[in-house]
């Protein structure tokens, strides 16, 4: 500080000794020098600021490049995801179309099944009616068969009785000798002149048996 004051005093004394034009020139020179120093100092500050700004710009450029790279990667990933989604959407659309077709076929099949179920119900109803008719016919046949057997047995008994009556009242011929009755007077070695006429019941009552040749 003391050195600066001494230097300033020396400069002041020199300026004081100078004449007026020299003093003006010195003042101008001093102002110019001060201005130059001021601008130099500001320029130095500006240079430092510019360097700082350039460094900051370089950092921003690096960050921008990184962001640009990330953005490009993001764009590529997004395009890939979009393509994948489009493929998935197409597959889903294809599946949806197939589902719609299958749903339509299912509806048609269901209508067919419903129609067949109606037909089956009608056929079951017809089968039940037929079974009922068959059972009725069976019952009627059993009743008719029973009635027919009864009538047949009655007719058979009547026929047998009639046949027996007819057979018992039939004419029988007895030979002079022998133990058989005959249906004709000259059976075998019989002498028709000696044969006598009777009935089967009477011959049986007398102990005669039927001849195996003529009966």
Protein topology:
Layout: H1 2-17, H2 20-169, E1 171-174, E2 180-182, E3 196-199, H3 200-205, E4 209-210
Parallel strand pairs: 2-4
Antiparallel strand pairs: 1-2, 1-3
The largest beta-sheet arranges its strands as 3-1-2-4
Overall pLDDT score: 78
Secondary-structure content class:
alpha+beta
| Main sheet properties | 4 strands, mixed
Radius of gyration (Å): 77 Å
**Poorly predicted tracts of residues:** 158-163
Question: Which word captures the global form?
Answer: rod-shaped
Q: What's the tally of helices?
A: 3
Order of helices and strands: HHEEEHE
| Binned strand content | 5-15%
Number of strands: 4
In whole angstroms, the N-to-C terminal distance is: 191 Å
Helix share, percent: over 70%
What does this structure look like?
This protein has a four-stranded mixed beta sheet. The protein has a domain at 169-215. Mean pLDDT is 78; it is low at 158-163. By secondary structure, the protein is of the alpha+beta class. It starts with a helix and ends in a 5-residue tail after the last strand. 5% of the residues are buried. The protein is built from three helices and four strands. It has helices spanning 2-17, 20-169, 200-205; strands spanning 171-174, 180-182, 196-199, 209-210. The radius of gyration is 77 Å and the shape is rod-shaped. Helix content is 80%, strand content 6%.
């Amino acid at each position: 500080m003391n050195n600066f004051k001494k230097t300033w005093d020396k400069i002041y004394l020199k300026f004081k000794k100078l004449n007026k034009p020299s003093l003006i020139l010195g003042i101008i020179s001093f102002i110019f020098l001060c201005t130059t120093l001021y601008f130099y100092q500001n320029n130095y500050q500006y240079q430092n600021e510019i360097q700082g700004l350039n460094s900051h710009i370089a950092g921003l450029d690096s960050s921008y490049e990184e962001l640009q790279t990330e953005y490009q990667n993001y764009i590529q990933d997004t395009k890939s995801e979009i393509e994948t989604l489009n493929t998935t959407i197409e597959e889903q659309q294809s599946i949806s179309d197939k589902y719609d077709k299958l749903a339509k076929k299912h509806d048609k099949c269901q209508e067919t099944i419903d129609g067949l179920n109606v037909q089956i119900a009608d056929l079951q109803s017809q089968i039940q009616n037929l079974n009922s008719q068959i059972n009725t016919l069976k019952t009627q046949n059993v009743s008719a068969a029973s009635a027919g057997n009864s009538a047949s047995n009655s007719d058979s008994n009547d026929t047998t009785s009639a046949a027996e009556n007819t057979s018992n009242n039939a004419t029988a011929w007895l030979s002079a000798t022998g133990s058989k009755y005959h249906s004709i007077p000259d059976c075998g070695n019989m002498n028709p002149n000696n044969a006598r006429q009777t009935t089967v019941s009477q011959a049986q009552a007398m102990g005669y048996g039927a001849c195996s040749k003529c009966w």
